[in-house]
Amino acid sequence: MAKRSLPVPTVTQVTTWANPEAAAIWRRTSAHRSAYMATTTATLLDMAEVGEGTRVLAVGCGTGEEALAAAALVGPTGEVVGTDLSAAMIEIARDLADAAGVQNAQFQVMDAQRLEFPPASFDAVIARNSLMFVPDLGGALAEIRRVLRPAGRVGATVWSAGSRNPRISAPMAAARALGVIPPETSTYRIALRLSRPSVLAAALRQAGFHHLSVRRVTLMAPYADLDEAVTGALEQSATRELVGLLGPDGAGRMRRSLARRLARYSTPEGTNLPGEQLVAAASVRA
């Protein structure tokens, strides 16, 4: 029988967070992001069976929020290694770990498609909102499987459908309303690359993982008012990509278009943007 091809095609490498300016924005919004992602992160760590004394690899960790959460769980007898392709993000992750006095976590610049660790190095590998941005997903999952010990666990989170995530779909809809179709290479489109549970599950199975489970987790990102929500969206490098395609007064036009789309989530008490994530976990055969 012919081997089934991986259901996720290769994409262009996203460099959205490679520059220091984008990383600085990510750092400034870290507390807000950690709060609205708290349930997702807790579910991820639980499904990956991160616990006391385990050695954990956090792939595509960005500024390290989930890696630091894992470090709290593994305790002094465990260890967490966080990796990301962005040197600017890794520098911030190291600073945040130092500021928090975390001694059982280290961070390295590394490509998820070429993990520089010996086989069977980790008890668990976690990837929070990063796998969809890896160009060769099959290659990355093969690397993750290689560095996991027998019976080790992989856990990953991705965004579900755009209709359930206005923080992603609204900027794209705003751009379309202004006459611009987001290209296949845009960050927001790639962010939804694994948005169907069947695609994510098939990719993990294709890579040789077993005992697979996928859960849906809802979240809510709160903002003081509509203007704060729109400003937050405009600060994102992924939104700036679209603004750059709009021509004269692109930022102003995008702001007005975004405000019309996000107004439905506003109340006198604030603006709350809903979201939904898929959290998947699987094991290496013992």
Write the layout of secondary structure elements.
Blueprint lengths: L19 H9 L1 H7 L1 H10 L7 E5 L5 H10 L4 E6 L2 H13 L5 E5 L12 E7 L8 H11 E12 L6 H12 L9 H5 L5 H10 L3 E14 L2 H10 L1 H7 L6 H13 L3 E2 L2 E14 L3
Helix pairs in contact: 2-3, 7-12, 10-12
Kindly provide the radius of gyration, computed on alpha-carbon positions and rounded to a whole number of angstroms: 19 Å
How many H/I helical runs? Answer: 12
CATH class of the domain at 20-160 and 193-222 and 275-283: Alpha Beta
Count of distinct strands: 8
Sequence of secondary-structure elements: HHHEHEHEEHEHHHEHHHEE
Integer average pLDDT: 94
- According to CATH, the homologous superfamily of the domain at 20-160 and 193-222 and 275-283 is Vaccinia Virus protein VP39
Described by strand count, sense and barrel closure, the largest sheet is:
8 strands, mixed
Distance between the termini: 25 Å
By helix and strand content, what is the structural category? alpha/beta
Low-pLDDT residue spans = 1-5
CATH architecture descriptor text of the domain at 20-160 and 193-222 and 275-283: 3-Layer(aba) Sandwich
CATH topology of the domain at 20-160 and 193-222 and 275-283: Rossmann fold
What does this protein look like?
This protein has 286 residues and is α/β, with parallel strands linked by helices. The chain has a domain at 20-160 and 193-222 and 275-283: 3-Layer(aba) Sandwich (Rossmann fold). It has helices at residues 20-28, 30-36, 38-47, 65-74, 87-99, 137-147, 166-177, 187-191, 197-206, 226-235, 237-243, 250-262; strands at residues 55-59, 79-84, 105-109, 122-128, 148-159, 210-223, 266-267, 270-283. The protein is globular.
